[in-house]
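ok so for the tutorial part 2 we go from a plain amino acid sequence to predicted structure tokens. step 1 is just haveing the sequence, like this:
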Amino acid sequence: MAVCLEKIDEHPYGSLTITFLLWKGLGLILALLSPGPGYDTSTDLLFLLDTAHNHHSAKGLNLFQSFAQHLSLKLVRWDAIYFVSAAKHGYIYEQQWAFSWVLARFVRSTTNCKE
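step 2 — the prediction. this is what the tokens look like for a chain of 115 residues:
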């Protein structure tokens, strides 16, 4: 155990990067394996519009599109869109007041979001 801690002290950026990637990977795996579409199925509308305009016949492309759709349905929710909008433009809509004002200000100050 002591040897492991010494190596972490020698390479703090590498250890932090590996820890970050493992944490994000775990979150991604949990999102992919979670059952059902969740309570917010409004993301389906994006794919209904896309499939109405695009028709691909290649099997590999359809498999990739299916995986990308499954992944995005698990990761993208309208809550995220409202939060980013609140961080960028301030609180405009009633739904945006569900998010922390402090966190929205923090996101705005650490990114290139302008009012």
